[in-house]
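Hi V.,

You were right to ask for the full record rather than a summary. Here it is.
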Amino acid sequence: MIPLSMVNPGQKVQIVQIRGGRGFVSKLANMGFYPGVIIEVVSNRNGPLIIARDEIRLGLGYGMAHRIFVRPLN
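Predicted structure:
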């Protein structure tokens, strides 16, 4: 289990745990990002980290991405 902020662009991962307050967790869940979901890191360079799930793209700040723990998929 690693923080989402450490994942390279183009890699697919599964969300394992989201550490944060109720507002942060529910906001992500309402957009379709919750434990068990498979996502792809689109960009992890300077600026926001961009993740994708199906047709949804979401930009996250480094602090937010560091509180989302994922498991890399092979």
